[in-house]
Amino acid sequence: WGDNRAKKDATMKRPYLSVVIPAYNEVKSLQKGVLNEVFDYLSEQKFTWEVLLVDDGSTDSTLRLLKNFAAKHQEFRVLAEPHRGKGGTVIAGVLKARGELVLFADMDQATPISEVEKFLPKFNEGYDIVIASRAGREGAPLVRKLMAYGFAVLRTLVLRLPYRDTQCGFKAFRKEAAQKIFKRMKIFTPIKSGFNEKHVSKGAGVTAGFDLEILYIARKLKLKVAEVKVDWHHKESERINPLRDSWEGLRDLIRVRVNALLGRYRL
């Protein structure tokens, strides 16, 4: 009985790092063994960790595959969420993460989990948030690179965010910093998060607004943000639509600016 209690106490201790991975119809990525890559890397680290696999109401067998994997790997947890898009799914995972630091990363491992090694020293230097910058965007089609450049120019003019890359899906926070930011978000808001039961998440897609709003609020709160170059490889996705993504990015940029002008991001 004593051994079982000690084991339970050990598993309940707060891990150093929580990794949140959103999932929506990710059977192809899962069949490639991406979660094994995550497990193999983290298992070699000296710090304690957990992984939260957050299913965004997948319509294929993603949830079943996630549960099967987690059943064999005790450090992995599965959260089954209603479909509301990547933003709401990431928020749900981050708010339920137990780690001192929380990283969210894409399932396809376009930015390999091992790149977190470049992030951790920044937290030791006193930073609250560390974001990835995709130097060169290796393998990305020319049209995507041109779109990214144009969006970066607009972003700088409209929101004055001093970062080269706001949209990479590989960002880490001190847990306390994430909580401060998420409870102030307006485009994407926590659902039943403990902050406000009346909040309703808006937007079912992967749009620019999620990352923009995070970084704009972080800047308003005077949180220290470090930007780190990472290895990143373009992954083909049927979900990418250049025209739609450009329109939604511009729309979200305007929404964040309007919210700011109306004083909706209270400190």
UniProtKB/TrEMBL annotation:
Short name of any one Pfam family annotated for the protein: Glycos_transf_2
Single GO term (MF): dolichyl-phosphate beta-glucosyltransferase activity
Membrane topology: Single-pass membrane protein
Span of domain Glycosyltransferase 2-like: 18-182
Enzyme Commission number: 2.4.1.117
Listed pathway(s): Protein modification; protein glycosylation
Catalytic reaction list: a di-trans,poly-cis-dolichyl phosphate + UDP-alpha-D-glucose = a di-trans,poly-cis-dolichyl beta-D-glucosyl phosphate + UDP
Keywords recorded for this protein, A-Z: Endoplasmic reticulum, Glycosyltransferase, Membrane, Signal-anchor, Transferase, Transmembrane, Transmembrane helix
Cellular compartment(s): Endoplasmic reticulum membrane
Biological processes per GO annotation: protein N-linked glycosylation
Membership in a protein family: Belongs to the glycosyltransferase 2 family.
Protein name: dolichyl-phosphate beta-glucosyltransferase
Organism from which the protein derives: Candidatus Woesebacteria bacterium GW2011_GWC2_45_9
